[in-house]
Amino acid sequence: MEKTKRKFRLKPAVLVFIVLFIILYAIIYIVPRVTDIFTQTYTAEYGTLETSIPATCVIVRDEQLYRASVGGSVERARQAGELVRKNSLVATVGGTEHYTDSRGIVSYYYDGYEEELSSQTLAQLGESFLSEYEGALSESGGGEQEAAAGEAAGGDVIFKIVDNKQWFLVCWLSPEDAELFAQGNRVQAAYDEQEPVAMSVFSKTQQGEKYQIVLSCDRSYANFDRYRLRECRLITSSYSGILLETDSIKEEDGVKGVYVINKLGDAVFTPVSILSSYQGQTVVEKNYFYDSEGEYVETVENYDEILKG
Q1: Residue 28 burial (CB count, 10 A)
Q2: Which residue ranges make up each domain of the chain?
């Protein structure tokens, strides 16, 4: 007895249902996961954004050298770094007393450039001084020298007085770096691993392809009387807040903000208040800020997940 063979065929309606089911499944479950793979985010963190420029600086002071009028044993009457008045006794050499002609800080170091460099010669100081001074260092084997102590011959330097009411740091920067400096702005100079020195921009003058930047200070600091050249880090701004990638900041309806990924995985536009931007990073207020109309605005928080730009 011959068996009858039957082919199994899906009805068109069933086939359409299966296809639609597969498409919907892909839309609901697969597409979002694939999209997440290409969605890049980063974690916002609290920190400090510092805008700083490295520079070789010349220290310029108004200072006066005092030399022994006679030879003999040296007796110092003042400590280095001590502030003295005019007509103060600082040293005695061979029984002859040496008094100051002006007030200032007592220093027992000098380098021979005291008369050449002063507040009156700032405008004439060029970048070539750096190589000139370094050349002098290599020839003499040292920069600053200690004033005569113990015994001195007539004419030897025995001390100097430094005007601490105002002294200067001078450097030369490219036009791009010089844009960060404007006359009167406050700046900090960090060198010798000490706390940054508070200064202000005294002048900004173009000299050839670079700009001469002169910073001034009205306070004395450790060793400010001793050295002539220093490698400095000039800090033009320093702000603390939430650090963001500048590219991730967008603008909607005139408001700047970033997209924060919430607990549901949605990207929510969140306004920000920018404090400073530098080299691809931006620091903004954390948690909240008040807008230009005085309205309270909630903003990014520490550890928020931010959508990259």
Answers
A1: 9
A2: 41-50+240-307, 55-238
Distance CA 127, CA 207 (A): 9
pLDDT tens by residue, 99-128: 999 999 999 999 999 999 999 999 999 999
- CATH tag for 41-50+240-307 (out of 2.60.120.10, 2.40.420.20, 2.40.50.140, 1.10.10.60): 2.40.420.20
Q: Could you write out the DSSP letters of every residue in 68-125?
A: -SS-EEEEE-S-TT-EE-TT-EEEEETTEEEE-SS-EEEE-EE-S-TTTSSTTSGGG-
Q: If you write DSSP's letter for every residue of 120-158 in order, what string do you get?
A: TSGGG--THHHHHHHHHHHHHT-S-EEPP-SEE-TT-EE
Distances (CA, A) of 115 to 27, 35, 102, 110, 146: 81, 71, 16, 11, 17
pTM equals 0.75
Task: Work out the burial of residue 197: count CB atoms within 10 Å of its CB; fewer than 13 is exposed, 13-18 middle, 19 or more buried.
Answer: buried
**Coil, strand or helix: which one is 298?**
strand
